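If you are new to this repository, start here. Below is one unmodified record pulled from the training split, so you can see the exact layout before writing a loader.
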Amino acid sequence: MQTRKAQFYIILAVIIIVILAGLVTTVNYVSKKERPVKFYDLTENFENEVFEVIDYGVYSKENVEEQIENFTEIFLEYAKEKTPEIEIVYIYGNEGEAIVANYGYNEMGVITKRGNITVTGADKTIESGITLQIAEKKFKRRVEQKAGRFRDFIEKISNPERDICLNISNTLHCFELKGEQQFLAILRLEKEGEIYIKKAGEIS
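And here is the target side for that same chain:
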C-alpha cells in the first residue's frame, strides 16, 4: 500500500514539474522576440546611400531636395517588399528653411518655436465618397486612396529656427538645425506590439 502511495506521489511530482517547465518555456519564448534583422539592414543601407545622394547633388549643383525625395521613394519601393511596415520621416534644411517629409502611416507633429504643424503620413489611407448619377439614379461609392497621392506628406517650414521636435505616435524626437544644411531621419518599424527605431543624423 505504501509502495503504491509513493508511486502516486512520484507520478504527481513528475506531472507538476512538466507543467512548470512548460510554463517557463512559454514565458521565455514570449519575452525573447527576434530582432528584426531585415529592418536594421535596410536602415543601414538607407543611411549610407542617402548621404551619397546628398553629396552628389551638392557637388553637381542639382536640386538636393528633389534628389532626396526621389531616392527615398525608390528606396521604399524596394524596402517594403522585404519589410512592408517600414516608415521613414526626415528633415532637410537649416534654421532658415527646412523640408519635412513623412513617409509613414500616421500623422506627425512638427514643433518649433514659431508653432506646431501636422504632416500627413504618405501611407495613411483616406476614405472619400463619390456620387455617380446615371439617368435618374444616383449611386454612392466609397473610395480609399493613399494620402501620398495628394502630396500632403511634405511640408516646407520657413524660419523653423534651431530647435525642432517631431512628434511621432506621442514620442518626441528633438534636435537642433546647425550649419548650412542638415539631413536628419528617423526610420521606424511597428510590428507585433513592438516599436523599433533607427536614427540617421544628429537626433537626440
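Two things worth knowing about this chain: The chain has one domain: 34-200. Residues 34-200 form one domain.
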